């Protein structure tokens, strides 16, 4: 039985009507409106909307202000309570947004399961003055055009009754913004609704502009024909009743507008989505960031096709619609930007402090390059000389303060090398904490650095499997050691070092003992769940069944291997494989991975230094 | 209430099935044809068991439902040239009247899970990029197709009811198989206009089927099937008041099998016979005064801890589920069988799983009222956002009538997403609460007195 529910706060002016729209409320202005009343009145002319199929131009024809919903809720408490936690983040943000007191009018479409249920939940709450669901056909044809026109007409009638405003075709026509096809050099953001944090992170990560063509971003309705706004002929007036001029303008507008709105670039919920292929490989498009959202069914499937057929590089990023995974996003996006640039050295240091002055002018001074990898578990540092020979290296645990750990790693490696900070020609940071390391000249993502470092350690390697504490990555290299493709785990901890740590905690074992015990397995035990929470539940059940701990750990190792195999398949990884990251020290996982991939997975004694080494090497190469 | 007791025989049975499933897992990637062969053999053995060695602990009607549900899959797999791949909500009378075999994705996935083979299918889907949060029924379907276990079909037809997955999986498979695909778009609200719109699509589907399979549709036969459908659903409604005081020896698996039979084979003589048999069985069944639980959505029929609590238990029984009553109407139909396309369209638009959450909740309320349910379990199947989003509205609707609701999260198809122990604890606690509430009711005290 779930916890008892407390009713949602219900606004005093909200009408609770089971119909599609709310009743119209009247205000007593005889004593003059108060500020609050004026504000409330203004809010009642603002329509919020999430979907590109909402008839924005029609509603502007009534003088309404239309505001797209790009709200990113920090808490899903209300949505979880009123609906369910396993809805997409955008749907839950929408519910949270609609519960804000200043949001009075909301128009949705039946575009997906979550939007339909968001409507149901909000209708049941009765928290809005005007709430409307436009039923959106899945098919495109004359019958659907007619159905959609009727839907728009119903909405127009309801809004006219609610707002008391008449439709003005001129206002509606003025609301159109003509579509201008872009041909400038740019990256396209495609896929599920792009939350603000993703848009910001994308714009910051790329050297070129970003074009937003996500579910809620790419709204382009054809421009109306010039004669649509023309006043009807006088003769026509005489034959009609008193309301004829206005009605006929609206009807003529709807006749044209309904198909125009319905036939814009289809979103994935439409039955025929072939037109979407024209969004890929357009002039000037250098790459595509493809966004999928947890619990949004549609967009993962388009990515499947896109990844196989796109003529431009594609990066998939998955979010839960919140800003919480921004750190991981930045790494992926920046790495993709580096991949798109193709030649890291040419643009890498243009923002560095020292690259343009000291490093290039002080030719007499001996060259030392420092690479620092600030990871979630350890912070690693490497110093190389001008010949690329390793002068010193250090690995220190990343404590609670990444900056302090970086300082400690740098001090250690400088001490071991017998150098001072001033002796370093160039310092390159990488890893999660790369932006926080003080006094570095530049930073490169750990994906590019791992690739370069691994190529140095084992030039024959074509795929790096990096399983760290926070995330896991599969990086595919070309013959020259450049990143050809890569994939990272989602926000979920499955298939990461954290997953194994949590399972070790469940079994009440220290991690090193946990790793060693897994090698003593006798019988295959299947942990079928990839989800950490469910897997923990399975482990508890197995313990209750007296299953030997070694067998359980072996099952967990296999579970991690299975998750990594899925990632590897996604980027068509091939051997030889090299495993890096902290989990490379877990022999059980390495063996399981080899079995899952059907190939040997090598490790290297310096694999933990891979990122720092790659950073130093890339730095050194940039000086040459 | 029956306590949970571990049974060695049961564990052995599960172990054998798991070993068999592991063998499937090992061979699936390299030899999907062998996997398909083994699966069909397993289904055929099970089908033979439903005829030769039926489960004597269940009522005759339940045995028939089991056989019919299984036959809906085996018959289709045995006649690959006459198969139409479809979903559970699209009316099947057209296919039946043309002698075609509708293979419902949900039925196939259910029996793959019954054979303990779903992990390999789910894994194949996820390794090919299907999102982890996608509905497991559809993951099994797609995984089977990606792995080559499910062979290309000649025709795919489905509808927009009840969820987005229907709008994705079939489209993707049609592209992969290179076969014709008809998608019936169903508006949320019933009106004569929307009914004509859907009827037109169904009629067009009939035309395309005739072209694709090179056979004619006998209009009289279609009318006959639609008439049988209406009679069958009427019988089903008549079973409701009989259920609460009779021990119907139901269970999660049986309820799902009933649901499959009433969708895949609705309109056939077999299913009309099933509905009559249910009426007879329920009238003649032993008396029962335990708890009556209404179930909403799919059920984790594979879960041993839940089976011990719910299946054939004299203390509590699943009295009905909305998966069996989604198509029924408690009012007369607007369209008679002599307008077969309009009649099928009406049923489809009015389906409890179509449209808003309010309608779904209202249908449950009416079913609960007629079968005097003590409480309801709303099962939020992994990835089923339609049910998840409606769960609290259903809860409010039923609790307003004094019927407590348990919202139970899990997966009706993939064991890996189902936390057995936790779910059983929650369910048992809910049943204990219902028992306590029942004991406090004054009319119950009078009876005891």
UniProtKB/TrEMBL annotation, chain A:
Q: Where are the stretches annotated Disordered?
A: 1-22
Keyword list (alphabetical) reads: Iron, Iron-sulfur, Metal-binding
The cofactors it requires, by name, are: [4Fe-4S] cluster
What Pfam families does this protein's entry cite? BcrAD_BadFG, HGD-D
Location of the ATPase BadF/BadG/BcrA/BcrD type domain: 370-619
> InterPro entries from the entry?
ATPase_BadF (IPR002731), ATPase_NBD (IPR043129), CoA_E_activase_dom (IPR008275), Dehydratase_Activator_Redct (IPR051805), FldB/FldC_alpha/beta (IPR010327)
Indicate yes or no for the key word Metal-binding.
yes
Q: Does the keyword Iron-sulfur apply?
A: yes
Cross-referenced PANTHER family, in alphabetical order? BIFUNCTIONAL PROTEIN [INCLUDES 2-HYDROXYACYL-COA DEHYDRATASE (N-TER) AND ITS ACTIVATOR DOMAIN (C_TERM), BIFUNCTIONAL PROTEIN [INCLUDES 2-HYDROXYACYL-COA DEHYDRATASE (N-TER) AND ITS ACTIVATOR DOMAIN (C_TERM)-RELATED
Instruction: Output this protein's name.
Output: Acyl-CoA dehydratase activase
Automatic annotation (TrEMBL), chain B:
- Organism this protein belongs to: Kribbibacterium absianum
One of the Pfam families matching this protein, by short name = HGD-D
Name of this protein: 2-hydroxyacyl-CoA dehydratase family protein
What does the similarity note say?
Answer: Belongs to the FldB/FldC dehydratase alpha/beta subunit family.
Taxonomically, the superkingdom here is: Bacteria
Matching PANTHER family: 2-HYDROXYACYL-COA DEHYDRATASE,D-COMPONENT, 2-HYDROXYGLUTARYL-COA DEHYDRATASE, D-COMPONENT-RELATED
> InterPro entries this protein is in?
FldB/FldC_alpha/beta (IPR010327)
